[in-house]
């Protein structure tokens, strides 16, 4: 391996490791995030065996996490001519990754939370005690805020990448 190849391999390994650590902070398991990083930086689609070898994980762990990444829409299964094995490649467009993760997190986390808040608010709308009214008001405020944030995320996710960057620069620059 040349010095240049060695530097690339080292940088890629560091990225995969750190992406895994970030993933666990974002609520997905470390291995799933590492597989995503590995595929995102792979120049060619990888098989389950490739993932197992490069990350040192079991077949079951690799298979389960690959299927979950496919379910999220971050990875797709591809076939190679003359191969019986299944290969996987990750979406590489950063904006598409962002919008996919946003959509999936909304479906899996935000929508159930909004449902719970609405249910709690509805169950306590007739409360007359100070504590009951305060609880009801807190549930409504949380529901309103999370609903607003969800709508903002939907709008941003629906924008074209360049326009979203320009808008963010105006808002936060």
| Topology pattern, helix = H, strand = E | HHEHHEEHHH
Could you report the average pLDDT, rounded to the nearest whole number?
91
Side-by-side strand order of the widest sheet: 1-3-2
State Rg. Answer: 21 Å
Query: Any idea of the CATH class of the largest domain?
Result: Mainly Alpha
What is the CATH architecture descriptor of the largest domain? Orthogonal Bundle
Helical coverage, percent range: over 70%
* Helix run count: 7
For the record, what is the CATH homologous superfamily label of the largest domain? Winged helix-like DNA-binding domain superfamily/Winged helix DNA-binding domain
Main sheet attributes: strand count, strand direction, barrel closure:
3 strands, antiparallel
What is this structure's SSE topology?
Layout (H helix, E strand, L loop, with lengths): L2 H23 L4 H12 L4 E2 H8 L3 H14 L2 E4 L8 E4 L3 H30 L6 H29 L2 H12 L1
Tell me what you see in this structure.
The protein has 173 residues and is mainly α. The protein has 2 domains: 3-90, Orthogonal Bundle (Arc Repressor Mutant, subunit A); 94-172. Helices cover 74% and strands 6% of the residues. The protein has 7 helices and 3 strands. It has helices spanning 3-25, 30-41, 48-55, 59-72, 94-123, 130-158, 161-172, and strands at 46-47, 75-78, 87-90. The protein has a 3-stranded antiparallel beta sheet with strand order 1-3-2. Helix 1 packs antiparallel against helix 2, helix 2 (30-41) crosses helix 4 (59-72) and helix 3 packs across helix 4 (59-72). The longest helix has 30 residues, at 94-123. The chain is elongated, with a radius of gyration of 21 Å. The mean pLDDT is 91.
């Amino acid at each position: 391996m040349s010095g240049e190849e060695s530097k690339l391999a080292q940088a890629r390994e560091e990225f995969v490791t750190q992406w895994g650590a970030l993933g666990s902070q974002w609520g997905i398991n470390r291995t799933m995030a590492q597989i995503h990083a590995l595929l995102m930086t792979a120049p060619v689609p990888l098989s389950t065996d490739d993932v197992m070898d490069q990350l040192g994980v079991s077949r079951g762990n690799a298979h389960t996490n690959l299927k979950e990444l496919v379910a999220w829409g971050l990875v797709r299964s591809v076939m190679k001519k003359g191969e019986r094995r299944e290969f996987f490649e990750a979406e590489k467009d950063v904006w598409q990754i962002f919008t996919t993760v946003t959509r999936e997190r909304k479906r899996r986390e935000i929508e159930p939370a909004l449902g719970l808040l609405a249910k709690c608010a509805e169950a306590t709308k007739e409360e007359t005690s100070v504590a009951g009214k305060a609880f009801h008001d807190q549930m409504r405020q949380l529901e309103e805020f999370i609903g607003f944030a969800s709508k903002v995320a939907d709008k941003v996710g629906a924008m074209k990448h360049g326009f979203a960057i320009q808008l963010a620069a105006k808002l936060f620059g």
